[in-house]
Structure formats: C-alpha cells, structure tokens
Specification:
This protein is of the alpha/beta class and about 350 residues long. It has a domain of about 140 residues. It contains ten helices and twelve strands.
C-alpha cells in the first residue's frame, strides 16, 4: 500500500497553508482505505503503524522508536503537536464563549463591527418606492492584537529515549493546558476591556442604578436585573472566579434538591436564568461576566500549534519551542457585560 513506501522529509512541514498531516493526506488519501483494516486512521496514524510506533496503552513504545530511521524521525514533531493540542482541547472553556474562529495566514488582522441603534434593529414596513433601512458594517479602526503563546520544551535525548510515549504525552498535554489557559486569559481581557477599539464591556454594580440591593451581596433579584440588561441579546453564559461562584452557589434559589444532587454527582451546575456557568479565576475577583456567546467574541488564529521541527529531527530534541498564535476581537459591543458584586 502507498503508506508503506512514502519518503518522509522535514520539508513537509514547510508547505504553505498546509499542516504536516494535510501534506500526508494529499499523498496518501484516507478515502482509498475504505473497507480495509486501515479505515478510520488518518495518514499520520498510518505512518505510526508503518513504523510500529505505539503512542498509548500499556505497550506504548519508547521515545527512541521515533528515531530508529530518518523517515520515522520526521513524525516526531507532529506527535508532539498532537499531544499539545489534546491538552489545549481538554477542559477548554473557549468553545463555550467564542462565537466564531477565524484562521489567517498573516500577523495583522482587522475585523469588522456594527453598532446599530435601537431604531436600526427594527424591521420596519417599507412603503412602495421608499428607501430600505440600512445596517452599516465597518472595519475596525485598530488591528486585533495577536499574541504568541508557548512553552520551551527542554530535554536531552539521552534523558528521555527510554521513556514510554504514553508517559511523555502526559507532559506534552500539560504544556497544551498551560497554553489554553493563556488563550483564555487573553479572551477574558478582551471581553472586559475591549480589543483596542473603545469597546470595553458595560459594567453594572450592585446597589447602583439600575441594579438594586447592597454592594457586596449577591441576590437572585440582582441576577435577574443583570439578565434584563441584555435585551435584545440573550445572556446564555456566565464566567465567574471562585469567590463569585461561591456566592452564586449559596443563593436560596439554587438550593433545591435537583441542583444539589446534580452538583454532588457530576460536579455540574444547573444553569440559572438559562446561562451556562463557567469558572475562571482569570476574571477579576468579586465580578461576573455575562455574555451572549453567539455574538460576543471572535477568536483569530494564525496557524495551528507550531513545533520547531528542525531541532527535534536533526538534534534529537534538546530545546524546541511549542507555540500558538491567536487573538480575540469583540463582535457586538452589547453582547458582553460585567456585574460587580
């Protein structure tokens, strides 16, 4: 079969606009393996099978198995990138708050926005021959800031050559988790302060109109009043740090048998006022962020997780940077608001 005869080289990582796996797939398409024992494997996984490299389970291979040949060594950076992506994806809050993900092949990005007035949001009857009401969409004045986040992987080949890939992948997933937390911190900053285009979130403080109650005390009434500020949007997600979460959990309205049973059994909370609760200690203490995740935030990515493949292949590890470049932009200004308890 084709996957047994492929010549692998590090130049496959350099093809513009394509990942290493996409390059492999173009040479060795998965479609041709339908109905065979290889069905369900992508081109990279078939190469692992070709070199008998087992990446997980009790019988996982040692790291040195990748460096048995020059061809198999080329697979090592992609293995690292995949493990890091697994760490990024596990317990990732971003899919629950991001409306759309934009992938670009540049370091500069200017998004668009629309800030309609209340009159613009109405779909009015248009008389014959009359002008149709307009909604104006503009390019933002300032570029979206992209941040390069990553970790330096430092290890000698001698130190890890006999370690099992299953254990090594745990270390790599932890790196992915750290990168994911950095991305989330960037998203929280943009939701709160804006993306540099004077579009920070509106702030409502308990005890200050239009919020009733006493500052420092969270009540269900205050929660309802905060929810009411989102018209015409819908508050379908709330992000809160641990201290605000505790106050929320102590509300009498959430102290019902079903809520308690669900939380004790699964660790998941009921959604007050229909909003999914997300805990993030990157949010300022004593506050909560409410948002309509359908319209609030855009994530911009400049490529996928990147691994310095030259050092990994030619020098057998030593030091290699694992990076991810991304940024965030506000879409609709009124779709995210802050509650100060």
């Amino acid at each position: 079969m084709a996957f047994d005869n492929l010549h692998l080289e590090k130049g496959m990582y350099r093809e513009s606009g394509k990942s290493f796996t996409q390059v492999l797939e173009s040479i060795d398409p998965s479609e041709q393996y339908r109905g065979t024992a290889m069905e369900g494997l992508d081109a990279f996984q078939r190469q692992l099978k070709r070199f008998d490299i087992k990446v997980k389970g009790a019988g996982s291979s040692p790291v040195e198995k990748f460096f048995a040949t020059m061809d198999s060594a080329v697979l090592f950076p992609e293995f690292i990138a995949r493990c890091v992506r697994q760490g990024i994806e596990q317990d990732n809050v971003l899919p629950a708050i991001v409306a759309t993900v934009t992938n670009i092949d540049a370091m500069d990005y200017r998004s668009i926005y629309s800030v309609p007035a209340d009159d613009d949001k109405e779909l009015k009857t248009v008389a014959e021959g009359a002008a149709i009401p307009t909604t104006q969409v503009k390019a933002k004045e300032h570029l979206i800031r992209l941040h390069k986040r990553g970790r330096m992987l430092v290890a000698s080949y001698e130190a890890i050559r006999f370690q099992k890939l299953d254990l090594f992948s745990v270390m790599l997933r932890q790196i992915g988790t750290h990168i994911q937390k950095m991305h989330l911190a960037d998203a929280i900053e943009v939701l709160t302060d804006g993306d540099g285009n004077a579009n920070g979130a509106a702030t409502y403080t308990i005890g200050t109109k239009p919020m009733s109650g006493t500052k420092g005390t969270l009540t269900y009434d205050a929660l309802v009043e905060f929810w009411a500020q989102f018209n015409p949007y819908e508050m379908n997600a709330m992000i809160a740090p641990s201290d605000s979460f505790i106050k929320l959990l102590k509300l009498d309205e959430l102290q019902n048998p079903l809520t308690g049973l669900n939380f004790q059994g699964t660790g998941k909370l009921e959604n007050p006022i229909g909003a999914q609760l997300l805990r993030c200690d990157g949010v300022t203490a004593g506050t909560m962020i409410g948002l309509d995740r359908r319209y609030a935030l855009e994530m911009v990515q400049a490529g996928d997780v990147t691994v310095e493949y030259d050092k990994l292949i030619d020098r057998q590890l030593e030091r290699a940077a694992i990076t991810s470049i991304s940024g965030f932009g506000k879409i609709m200004d009124g779709a995210a608001k802050i509650l100060v308890i």
